[in-house]
Amino acid sequence: xxxxxxxxxxxxxxxxxxxxxxxxxxxxxxxxxxxxxxxxxxxxxxxxxxxxxxxxxxxxxxxxxxxxxxxxxxxxxxxxxxxxxxxxxxxxxxxxxxxxxxxxxxxxxxxxxxxxxxxxxxxxxxxxxxxxxxxxxxxxxxxxxxxxxxxxxxxxxxxxxxxxxxxxxxxxxxxxxxxxxxxxxxxxxxxxxxxxxxxxxxxxxxxxxxxxxxxxxxxxxxxxxxxxxxxxxxxxxxxxxxxxxxxxxx
Length: 250
Description:
- There is one protein chain.
- Helix content is 46%, strand content 24%.
- It is of the alpha+beta class.
- It has three domains: 13-74, Arc Repressor Mutant, subunit A (Orthogonal Bundle), CATH 1.10.10; 83-132 and 204-248, YebC, transcriptional regulation domain (Alpha-Beta Plaits), CATH 3.30.70.980; 134-202, Alpha-Beta Plaits (2-Layer Sandwich).
- The strands form three sheets. Strands 3-1-2-9 form a four-stranded antiparallel sheet. A four-stranded antiparallel sheet has the order 5-6-4-7.
- A hairpin with a 2-residue loop joins strand 5 (162-166) and strand 6.
């Protein structure tokens, strides 16, 4: 299981405040807007937009809010123009981090991301330093209580690349362009879908067996994620279940 997943599990179990939920909504809306600007507002022809649309709906973003974001992206409504930028760096213990950002001011955001890394105990790296360790993938999560053979059969028939256990869920991995098709195939097979996303998946992970080491790494991830322009933080670490349990109790 990737560091991003463990970290997200801890954040979820600790519960989301209204402030955190509002920040999540803002990030999801921005993702929808950019997807519409880059590929058009038609959900059927823009696979990235459809994935971002579904991600927003999975997180209970109101439909009219999503539709306005699409119209801003296509130019039907006035809005701020965002560009996608990625940053690479390291957390303590040599953990590689890949940060996905949408910004309306590249220079401002770059300086702020560097400062966040430094203050949280990490360091910003040069472009390309860690990107090679991550692959862009579509991910569909389904409840882990479902039968593995049923999930595997439906997913692979739809063109998914892999199905692995991820905590209390099954993680179905696919090519980004095939994400919604795999989700649709699972649902048509009667399989409940928990969420859909596009992520950067580490090719290999470093295990952190100390809860203190894991806290240090997650402190960097939390600090980065708290930045309004950051859409996703991905890292190549793993923690054993007993360490995860200890962290969620904090």
